[in-house]
Amino acid sequence: AGQYIYSPKCKMQSHELINQEVYAISIFANVYVPQGLGDDAVKFILTINGYDFDVVPINSHLNGIKIIRFSTGNSSSPYTERIGEKIKSAVLTIAYTNEVKIAPQINNIKILLGGEI
Fold this sequence. Notes:
Elements: E1 9-13, E2 24-32, E3 42-48, E4 51-55, E5 67-70, E6 80-83, E7 90-97, E8 105-114
Parallel strand pairs: 5-6
Antiparallel strand pairs: 1-7, 2-5, 2-8, 3-4, 3-7
């Protein structure tokens, strides 16, 4: 059996995720956080039109922003962040905080894009 030693912190960053304007964006990801690590062991940051937003996957049980949406209206939900312009640029950064012998795992990452309602 092999022995794994994990770096305490690391990041992954995507290239540009969209090639046309969209009205909403969220992420879907299966995240496994082993016992011994906190819910903050994996952080998802969506950089939208140059601004960073801490988000949680839409399929997550965690509280937080799950959808970033262009909207000029007033109605909102606790898991939606409204912005005042269409989404022209999106980059995903995933930051990991590990222990020496345990690390979170992520798979099945999907970027969900929405049009005008």
